[in-house]
Design brief:
Blueprint: H1 3-7, H2 11-35, H3 39-43, H4 49-67, H5 71-98, H6 104-121, H7 123-130
Helix pairs in contact: 2-4, 2-6, 4-5, 5-6, 5-7
Length: about 130
């Protein structure tokens, strides 16, 4: 693939959209857990309001940087998503070890984070952002 084609890759923009989907899942899941009568049982554990308030600004900065295909956006995203994946794996270990309820939201959030990290680390995504 030529350098020009790598620079024009749409993968960073797909990752930016996935970051926004993650923010929607975090906030939507938090609201649904409280609104539904059996929300905690059906949806399971998820990121709380403190975590969401911390993650949201970082996610928005990452999404903007990735949308612009900037080097800083890629690095901020790698650090933020990497940190969040490690944090979420530790959270899952505690939830599972304590016997707390896991549900759709618990696993969907983890899956989204894993997909984000994989697509972010693809060579084409990296080249599109760092190849400028």
């Amino acid at each position: 693939m030529s350098s020009g084609a790598a620079t024009r890759s749409t993968l960073p923009r797909w990752v930016a959209l996935l970051v926004l989907v993650l923010v929607l899942v975090v906030w939507g899941g938090m609201l649904l857990r409280e609104a539904l009568p059996n929300g905690r049982t059906l949806l399971g554990q998820g990121i709380g309001s403190t975590g969401a308030a911390f993650i949201t600004p970082l996610a928005l900065v990452s999404a903007v940087g990735l949308w612009l295909r900037s080097a800083w956006g890629w690095w901020v995203s790698v650090i933020a998503v990497g940190w969040q994946v490690v944090s979420y794996v530790l959270f899952l270990m505690v939830v599972i070890a304590s016997g707390d309820v896991t549900g759709i939201l618990t696993w969907l959030t983890g899956l989204l984070l894993l997909i984000l990290l994989i697509v972010l680390l693809l060579p084409a995504t990296r080249r599109a952002c760092l190849g400028r």
